[in-house]
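Hey team,

Filing this mostly as a record. A colleague (T.K.) asked me to run one chain through the structure pipeline before their review meeting, and I want the input and output archived in the tracker in case anyone asks later how it was produced. No errors, nothing strange. Just documentation.

Input sequence:
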Amino acid sequence: MDCPRCSVEMQEITQEDSTLQRCAECGGIWVVDVADLNKMLLHANLPALSTIGGFINADEISGMCPACNVDLVVVEGGEKRSLAYDTCESCGGLWVDGEEEAPAAELDWKGANKQIVDFFKRFAKKK
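Output structure:
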């Protein structure tokens, strides 16, 4: 599966029946299954994605879904809508941008989980 930002092959990160895809180039993570994301959020004492909220920015085009090649939808949130993630309305996949200028070449499940949870902690803040 190719990164929606860099168009390079992403690495697969798995744990039990859960799979994430990560781009070593930009550090972004593709969440294949929203049920896996909800488990991560709930284990971090955050609400499920459907209750975190956010605002769809229909004017912004962020790229193509790496799974089904349709346009991704940008969802904004956080303080003053300063954060955004992309989601596919067709397959339900979700993209979180990497935050490091020089991401590590490899990342394990624990590191990927932390990156996603930290993002949604900031995203859920409303001020």
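Quick notes for T.K.: The mean pLDDT is 91. The two ends are 36 Å apart (CA to CA).
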